[in-house]
């Protein structure tokens, strides 16, 4: 679903995700085990946001717009990137990435 939403540049709203065919939604078994009923994928900032909820929610464009506006209000990529520094820790076998966020 996320790949299709990104490729098409459109929102995909899937109700009864736990019963979807594996070809349509490859994580339907996972959705079933987690009681996920509704999944929504939409393109955002060059990627995709995927939300899953345990309630059955019919497609609602005003709800989607509300979610997107909340993301816009809380997403500040320029400010975030200016205050972000990262380095790779090569001291252990896990080769972890450490990220430090500073105020400013």
From TrEMBL:
The keyword Transcription applies. InterPro entries: MYC/MYB_N. Residues 1-70 form the Transcription factor MYC/MYB N-terminal domain. Keywords: Activator, Transcription, Transcription regulation. It holds the Pfam family bHLH-MYC_N. This is Transcription factor MYC1. It comes from Noccaea caerulescens (Alpine penny-cress).
């Amino acid at each position: 679903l996320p790949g299709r939403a990104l490729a098409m540049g459109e929102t995909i709203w899937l109700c009864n995700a736990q019963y979807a065919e594996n070809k349509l939604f490859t994580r339907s078994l996972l959705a079933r085990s987690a009681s996920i009923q509704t999944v929504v994928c939409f393109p955002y900032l060059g990627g995709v946001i995927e939300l899953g909820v345990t309630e059955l929610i019919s497609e609602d464009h005003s709800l989607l717009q509300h979610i997107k506006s909340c993301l816009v209000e809380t997403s500040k990529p320029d400010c975030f990137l200016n205050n972000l520094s990262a380095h790779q820790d090569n001291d252990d076998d896990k080769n972890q990435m450490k990220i430090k966020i500073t105020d400013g």
